[in-house]
């Protein structure tokens, strides 16, 4: 555990910030959260564990790619607008370049037998990994006392994953219902 | 490729990002619906391939949109899709970051969070269902998906090993 009273290092400059987020991105296999926490809190000591959790809570609360949101929140905290921009580009730049190269290769060689077979295997494994990740996230929820939370989760899963209804309609119904129920149960 | 396609990509991913609750993967089913079923930009198999490539590549999960954008409209498409998916919510984050602490214990925030967390869990499960369905090209592929799910649920294993094994099985023509 990190000591919350440990002094935090001085704020990084734009270059340091860029390098840090580029490294997080390159290390970050199947989940960047672990690496960003390690870099920000444990290695560089740019923020305390509490400050990290607080910033991360905001990014989870906001829609969209949460780690990208995090780069902007943290970058702004330590380096203003330039900091936010630099962290954003650092995080997305390397995978963007990689993806563009892979996109080009896929367009040219994607239909070649050997590559098709390799991708068939990896796609099946990647799907399995996604299933286990979602089960791990769901497990604590279903250990709680049954209530509206489980109904919301199951409804979202069935409507979007099985019935394949458009996300906008599903969320347009579930979010107001969920907030209403939470508000009502609060008392 | 034309300006109309780029505009579609931009508008679509910008809108989609606002509905990606709890992370980019929550939006996968909707990406699949648009790219495969509505716009017919790619086949089911190509979608599964792109998801697989994105998972094998280090970096945030959202990066699959770069690949989809590239497939649809080349380099410009990749750039437009990526910026559209990340831009709007990043602007939110930029401006909300300042005032966020004030709302830490606000009752409305607690209620919103209580609703969004279970929905995001359900959406992640939905993404898994959509991706698993797209990857299910044969009975052995289904078996490999199930096996990977079981093994990675039970033991902590570097996903790289799993991908390497799956790639070999695929190369051998077993999947």
Descriptive overview:
The complex is a heterodimer of chains A (187) and B (175). Chain A is an all-alpha fold. Chain A has helices at residues 14-27, 33-43, 49-61, 66-109, 113-143, 148-162, 167-185. Residues 1-5 of chain A have low confidence and may be disordered. Chain B is an all-alpha fold and 175 residues long. Chain B has seven helices and no strands. In chain B, α1 (3-18) packs across α4 and α3 packs across α5 (107-135). Chain B is globular. In chain B, 54% of the residues are buried. At the A-B interface, α1, α3, α4, α5 and α6 of A face α1, α2, α3, α4 and α5 of B.
Using the alpha-carbon principal axes, give the shape of chain A. Answer: flat
Helix count of chain B? Answer: 7
Low-pLDDT segments, ≥5 res of chain A: 1-5
Oligomerization state of this entry? heterodimer
Q: Radius of gyration of chain B over alpha carbons?
A: 18 Å
Uncertain segments of chain B: none
Along the chain, the helix and strand elements of chain A come as: HHHHHHH
- Count of individual beta strands of chain B: 0
Kindly name the structural category of chain B: mainly alpha
Tell me the β content of chain A: under 5%
* Average of per-residue pLDDT values of chain B: 92
The biggest sheet of chain A, with number of strands, parallel, antiparallel or mixed sense and barrel status, is: none
First-last Cα distance of chain B: 34 Å
**What is the overall pLDDT average of chain A?**
89
Hey, which two chains have the biggest interface?
A: A-B, 94 and 111 residues
Distance between the termini of chain A: 35 Å
Helix/sheet category of chain A: mainly alpha
DSSP strand content of chain B: under 5%
Largest sheet of chain B: none
Q: Considering DSSP H and I runs of 4 or more, what fraction of the residues of chain B is helical?
A: over 70%
């Amino acid at each position: 555990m990190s000591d919350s009273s440990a002094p935090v290092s001085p704020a990084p400059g734009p270059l340091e910030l860029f390098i840090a987020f580029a490294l997080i991105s390159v290390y970050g296999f199947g989940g960047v959260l672990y690496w960003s926490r390690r870099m920000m809190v444990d290695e560089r000591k740019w923020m305390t564990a509490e400050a990290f959790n607080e910033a991360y809570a905001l990014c989870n609360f906001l829609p969209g790619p949460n780690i990208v949101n995090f780069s902007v929140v943290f970058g702004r905290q330590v380096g203003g607008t330039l900091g936010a921009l630099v962290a954003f580009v650092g995080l997305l730049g390397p995978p963007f370049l990689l993806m563009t190269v892979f996109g080009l290769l896929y367009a040219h060689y994607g239909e070649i037998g050997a590559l098709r077979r390799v991708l068939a295997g990896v796609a099946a494994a990647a799907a399995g990994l996604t299933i286990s990740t979602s089960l791990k996230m769901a497990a604590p929820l279903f250990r709680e006392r049954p209530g509206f939370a489980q109904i919301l989760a199951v409804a979202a899963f069935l409507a979007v994953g099985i019935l394949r209804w458009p996300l906008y309609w599903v969320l347009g119904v579930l979010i107001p219902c969920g907030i209403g129920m939470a508000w009502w149960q609060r008392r | 490729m034309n300006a109309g396609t780029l505009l579609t990509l931009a508008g679509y991913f910008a809108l989609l990002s606002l509905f990606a609750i709890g992370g980019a993967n929550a939006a996968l089913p909707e990406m699949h619906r648009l790219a495969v079923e509505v716009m017919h930009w790619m086949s089911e198999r190509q979608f599964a391939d792109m998801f697989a490539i994105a998972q094998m590549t280090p970096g945030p999960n959202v990066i699959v949109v770069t690949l989809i954008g590239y497939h649809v409209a080349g380099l410009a498409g990749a750039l437009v899709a990526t910026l559209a998916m990340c831009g709007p919510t990043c602007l939110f984050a930029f401006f909300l970051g300042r005032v966020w602490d004030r709302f830490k214990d606000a009752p409305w925030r607690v209620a919103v969070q209580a609703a969004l967390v279970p929905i995001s869990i359900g959406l992640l499960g939905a993404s898994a269902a959509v991706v698993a369905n797209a990857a299910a090209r044969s009975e052995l592929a289904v078996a490999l998906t199930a096996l990977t799910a079981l093994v990675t649920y039970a033991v902590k294993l570097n996903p790289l090993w799993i991908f390497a094994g799956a790639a070999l099985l695929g190369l051998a023509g077993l999947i």
